[in-house]
Design a protein that fits this description.
It is found in: Cell membrane. GO terms for molecular function: transferase activity. Catalyzes the transfer of the diacylglyceryl group from phosphatidylglycerol to the sulfhydryl group of the N-terminal cysteine of a prolipoprotein, the first step in the formation of mature lipoproteins. The protein is built from ten helices and four strands, in the order ββααααββαααααα. It is mainly alpha-helical. The protein has one domain. The strands form two sheets. The chain has a two-stranded antiparallel sheet. A two-stranded antiparallel ribbon has the order 3-4. The protein is elongated and about 65 Å long. The protein starts with a strand and ends with a helix.
């Protein structure tokens, strides 16, 4: 675990956000090369990549705030911090680093000051993939329409570029310690260091005596999802794309495969996930997006035929 990947001129670079940005840059470069290869405007892909990064982070953060179970914590941090519990012992709570307030009656720590903008601090962690996908898709639709770039061709590019970027992002999750899994006795289980999100979660669940302890071994769900994402990117780029029968098929394949894989991996996740009906928010959204992928696939050949007929009439 390495929350800060490196420091440059006294400025720390968070591992999660740095690797997420690296993944987006690689995906954008790949998209620009792809656009040039098919005779389209490569500059449009660069503009698109920047816009999708900004809107994707905004969407990912907003869905985290609303759906991951932290909404009222963010509200109380602004209005009444005494209603927010921190997993620190008394000594650490009262240290200058934490600056907390110790509640002797309950034996818990509370934040010492209000923070009405904690919900917006995306660099501190707390981003959801599906929120990012929705936000980035909205930006893509607007920009592609403005630049008159074929939407479904660009969607097919996203079908292999997005999971490539996601593969890097999940490695950032591993280094940051977030998105951890449930306890396991498997030989590949990972223990996270003291004061990590896994230690905090297990302390809250009364599985550890102290937040300042190594966590019990957990499923490395970050590695699972990174490996799956990179495999989907390779499959969509080298197998589906050369054989596609209509524009949008690569994107539909990516959307369906990722939704199914993420649905399964969610059963091994142990961080706060939100949701209902014994399913996490990501699983519920995954069901919707898997059905959307099936709809794109069913309508794809018909859409392609209509486009050819329209082009013939127009010419």
């Amino acid at each position: 675990m390495r929350p800060e990947l490196f420091s440059l001129f006294g400025v720390g670079f968070p591992a999660y956000f740095t690797l997420l940005t690296t993944g987006f840059l690689l995906a954008t470069a790949l998209a620009a090369l792809w656009a040039h290869r098919i005779g389209e405007n490569a500059d449009a892909m660069v503009d698109l990549g920047i816009a999708m990064l900004i809107s994707g982070v905004a969407g990912a953060r907003l869905l985290h705030v609303v759906a991951d179970g932290y909404f009222w914590d963010y509200v109380h941090l602004c209005i009444d911090p005494s209603k927010v519990d921190w997993p620190f012992q008394k000594a650490e709570c009262l240290s200058p680093t934490r600056g907390g307030v110790w509640d002797a009656a309950r034996g818990v720590c509370h934040p010492g000051t209000t923070d009405c903008f904690a919900w917006a601090k995306f660099w501190a962690g707390g981003l959801t993939y599906y929120g990012g996908l929705i936000g980035a898709s909205a930006a893509a639709w607007f920009l592609l329409k403005r630049d008159r770039f074929p939407f479904w061709k660009a969607a097919d590019m996203a079908g292999f570029a997005v999971p490539l970027g996601l593969g890097f992002g999940r490695m950032g999750c591993l280094l940051a310690g977030c998105c951890y899994g449930v306890r396991t006795d498997a030989p590949w289980g990972l223990s996270f260091p003291p004061r990590s999100p896994a230690s905090e979660g297990q302390f809250k669940a009364h599985l550890l005596d102290s937040y300042a302890s190594w966590s019990h071994p957990v499923h490395p769900t970050q590695i699972y999802e990174s490996a799956v994402s990179l495999a989907i990117a390779a499959f969509c780029l080298f197998y589906v794309h050369p054989r596609k029968r209509y524009d949008g098929q690569v994107f539909a394949a990516f959307l369906f495969l990722y939704a199914v894989a993420r649905f399964i991996i969610e059963f091994w996740r142990d961080d706060d996930r939100g949701g209902m009906l014994h399913l996490s928010t990501s699983q519920l959204l995954g069901i919707v997006l898997a059905l959307a992928a099936v709809a794109v696939h069913r309508l794809g050949p018909g859409r392609s035929t209509w486009q050819r007929e329209f082009s013939t009439v127009k010419s």
